[in-house]
Design goal:
Elements: H1 21-28, E1 32-36, E2 39-42, H2 44-63, E3 67-68, E4 74-76, H3 77-82, H4 85-88, E5 95-97, E6 103-106, H5 111-121, E7 130-139, E8 154-164, H6 167-187, E9 192-196, E10 206-213, E11 219-224, E12 230-232, H7 233-236, E13 258-273, H8 275-280, E14 283-285, E15 291-293, E16 295-302, H9 303-313, E17 315-316, E18 319-320, E19 331-335, H10 342-357, E20 362-365, H11 371-381, E21 385-389, H12 391-396, E22 398-403, E23 408-412, H13 413-421
Parallel strand pairs: 3-7, 19-20, 19-21
Antiparallel strand pairs: 1-2, 4-6, 5-6, 7-8, 8-16, 9-10, 10-13, 11-12, 11-13, 13-16, 14-15, 17-18, 21-22, 22-23
Length: 426
């Protein structure tokens, strides 16, 4: 992609309404633009990152044996009344009417729709266990949308639902999803903790949250310094206690002491049991021919929130530092004088074509701007490697290889392509 051709409106100044780093950098780097409160348009470079996250999520879900479907965003009131959540959800549930005055909502989640699908199409225990998932837009009418896509009203989410004949099978599905989520976050290169949590409005017997560790995290979690133990402080504090009463107490698992961290919740897995299947009478015939209501699990991961969380965890004063798996472009060719010198233009274009043919995602900065503007934009966007072609090329046939972490080296063009032959392509 040539820089002059891509829709990439970067900003020099920090937008006044952007409170956290991820929101600031996503606006400044031209990833998103605000439509209205809590609702954003994803621009080309932002969408590239979002799709990379989505693809990793999809690959790990498929590898776990889950099957992808797509359910409607618009859901009828009748299904939500069966579980009594039409009223329980309160104003967070955006209710609408069609031209016939029938009631619907924009789905914040899909337990009712998926349970209705299963009760009408799965009849025998032989068809279980079954895990279905979707990657789809959700809408929750947040009372105070903030932090950009971190807490928006409209967002992209992967939600999956397992159906099992008994508790033992449910536990197996739950652990399978737990491992899948760990693989997703590992592949994305994020530091995270698995936290014991409250099931909240979704319900069920047991649940765990996946938190990406970051200074601007909305949640406060207590973690052991010597084990994997982690829990939302809300579940550990007794009434009236302050969080500070926890900064050195023995960990409840008997290993190490408690530390307080900030986390961004990016995933949540639930053992729902029969909360929805009892309410909606979703049953199958067991091996004795008796009808049994199903056990159910629910597993959500915020695809768009993962993008913001990654930025919160990986940035510096210059801009974004993408984990390898998430970067929109792997290489940026900074051509100084592209519009003025044919030799520079040809060298930059030839290198662009060669690296592209090797499988790299390459950007060529062919703009008329000088080195300062070009390198600042590249650092803001977070491209891992910049190859600078300018005066040194004309004088000595040399180019500069500059990494996002500040390291740089000088070499011949042919040496640069040799170096890249040994790079691992994500």
């Amino acid at each position: 992609m040539f820089w002059s051709k891509i829709f990439l409106p970067t900003l020099k100044d920090i937008p006044q309404d952007a409170e956290v780093i991820s929101h600031q950098l996503m606006l400044r780097s031209g990833m998103i633009r605000r439509v209205t409160s809590g609702i954003y348009t994803w621009l080309p470079i932002g969408l590239k990152v979002l799709r990379k996250v989505e693809n990793i999520v999809r690959e790990e879900m498929n590898a776990s044996g889950a099957q992808e479907i797509l359910m409607p965003m618009v859901q009828p009131k009748e299904l939500w009344e069966e579980t009594q959540r039409w009223d329980k959800m309160g104003p967070e549930l955006l209710r609408i009417k069609d031209r016939h005055e029938r009631d619907f909502c924009l789905g914040p989640t899909h337990e009712e729709v998926i349970t209705d699908l299963i009760r009408n199409n799965i009849k025998s225990y032989k068809e279980l266990p079954l895990n279905l998932y979707q990657i789809q837009t959700k809408f929750r009418d947040e009372v105070r949308p903030r932090y950009g896509v971190m807490r928006g009203r409209e967002f992209l989410m992967k939600d999956s639902y397992s159906f099992n004949l008994n508790e033992e099978s449910l536990n197996e599905s739950y652990l399978l999803m737990k491992e899948a989520y760990k693989k997703i976050l590992d592949r994305l290169g994020l530091k995270f903790k698995i936290v014991k949590a409250d099931s909240g409005a979704i319900g069920g017997d047991a649940s765990e949250e996946f938190h990406v560790l970051a200074e601007n995290g909305e949640d406060t979690i207590a973690v052991s310094d010597s084990s994997d133990f982690a829990i939302n402080t809300e579940l550990l504090l007794e009434e009236g206690d302050a969080i500070e009463s926890l900064q050195g107490k023995p960990s409840p698992d008997g290993k190490g002491t408690i530390q307080i961290k900030k986390g961004i919740e990016v995933g949540h897995i639930f053992q729902l049991g029969k909360v929805y299947t009892d309410a909606m009478k979703a049953s199958v015939l067991d091996h004795e021919g008796k009808a049994k209501n199903l056990f159910m699990g629910c597993y959500g991961i915020g695809v768009s929130r993962l993008v913001a969380a990654a930025i919160e965890q990986n940035n510096d004063e210059k801009g974004i530092i993408w984990p390898e798996a998430m970067t929109p472009f792997e290489v940026n060719i900074v051509a100084i004088g592209f519009d003025k010198d044919e030799k520079i233009a040809k060298a930059a274009t030839d290198l662009y074509n060669e690296l592209s043919s090797m499988g790299y995602e390459v950007m060529l900065d062919d703009r008329k701007d000088g080195y300062g503007t070009k390198i600042k934009d590249a650092e803001l966007i977070g491209i891992p490697v910049n190859i600078i072609i300018g005066k040194q090329y004309l004088q000595n046939n040399e180019v500069e290889l500059k990494h996002r972490d500040g390291q740089s080296s000088i070499g011949k063009v042919e040496d640069i392509t040799t170096i890249f032959e040994h790079y691992k392509i994500s």
